[in-house]
Task: structure prediction
Amino acid sequence: MPSKPSAPKAPKAPSVKKSKVPETLRGFRDVLPDEQAAWEKMEDVMRSLSRAYGFGRIRLPALEQTSLFERGVGKETDIVEKEMFTFTDQGGVRMTLRPEGTASIARAYIEHGMLNQPQPVKLWYSETFFRHERPQAGRYRQFSQFGLEALGSEDPVLDAQVILMCQRFCKDMGLDVTVQVNSLGVPSSRKAYVAELVKYFKLHKKQLSETDQKRLIRNPLRLLDSKEPGMEELKAGAPQMIDYLDDESKSHFMKVLEYLDEAEVPYVLNPFLVRGLDYYTKTVFEVALTNPGTEEGASMVLGGGGRYDGLIPLFGGRENTAAVGAAMGLERVLIAAKAAGTLPDPRRRSEVFFCQLGEAARRKGLKAFERFREAGIDVAEAFSKGNLKAQLEIADKLKAPIAIILGQKEVLDGTIIIRDMESGAQEIVDVEKVVGIVEKRLLEIRARKAVAKEKVEVQPSV
Ligand code: HAM
Result:
């Protein structure tokens, strides 16, 4: 049998090559809506603390001249040596995405003549910073800091105040922290100490790793926070800064500790704390969880800071312009608060939910919804949904005690329905008066809730 001719093949649709959307860069991340409640809580705490202690907000530029950080943070620090995002712009200017805030603060203090204002000038910031580090848990290439800087005074009470504010910030985020403190003294006493330190480590040079041998030559103080194997034992026998402090630095440090004792801020002395930035003089400190729970938590420093009396003079500002400050790592505070279960519920809650049914109601609803919003009522909506049941379910999820319902009939009558979500009771009211009536109902509901809460609290325990 002759075979049937096969049906002609349909022409293949030309294949469209799908290119993958570029992903976020390593060490960079999106902060999604679910995380906003936590960030907002943190921002509220920052604002209220700063206001209480008289710190004014400053917003800093993201880009600065590279030399600002080279001179301020120090050419031989890890930040400047390895971690800065630096480039030359179209005009040939070398610029850097800010890796930290203190150098910019010192620049701004000089540039805006803040030394003519009553001293100390107290500033706070909440900004993102950029460091090209190896990304891992709690270490990003873009991260955020809550920074506090008090400039123009060497009073030790300011060191204590900044430390206390860092501790309170964590406490208000539900975290129990301990502060590690040390004093690095003034440059002359530190020089004498470093000479002793070098002498000591030179005696043990063979036991030092290659990295630490480099540190011994370039930045011997950093040997004190080396985590290389065997260093713990070596450090234990090393000379300690505290024994080399000049009298002024010693009495300054004692006063800081006395203020911390008085304010009941938990701290421990850590003679090996040096911090990784060159501008520090006298007090240095770091903030970490008191009971970290995990090894990861134990190694995570939530914040740190110290005094930097030499930075403003270094930048050409008036001699003897002392300053002290700190910065808390906000992503790290959030990681710790999440582990401690102290973050707020990310779900949105609203007091009123606005439902509409049918095209006419949707159109009128847009205006009616605005009236609630303008009156300052926390009102939510789902205009893209047409079905009443679905909208009431959302109202339920948001735990809204009141739903407003606008249907075809109500649009024609110039009315609107107020539904008590708990009892299901409904009342029909004049659309022009609805906002006032809802405000009244909300007051009644809040009062009812307050009474119920009080009753629960005074229940005797059995
Ligand atoms: P810092 O110790 O370099 O100090 O940073 C402060 C905090 O920022 C750290 O304790 C950490 O929580 C957070 N942080 C630093 N790098 C990263 C990163 N790659 N990823 C996530 N979090 C990070 C300073 O920046 C000084 N400017 C603090 C200061 C202010 N000193 C005096 N005034």
In short: DSSP finds 16 helices and 16 strands in the chain. The chain has a mean pLDDT of 93.
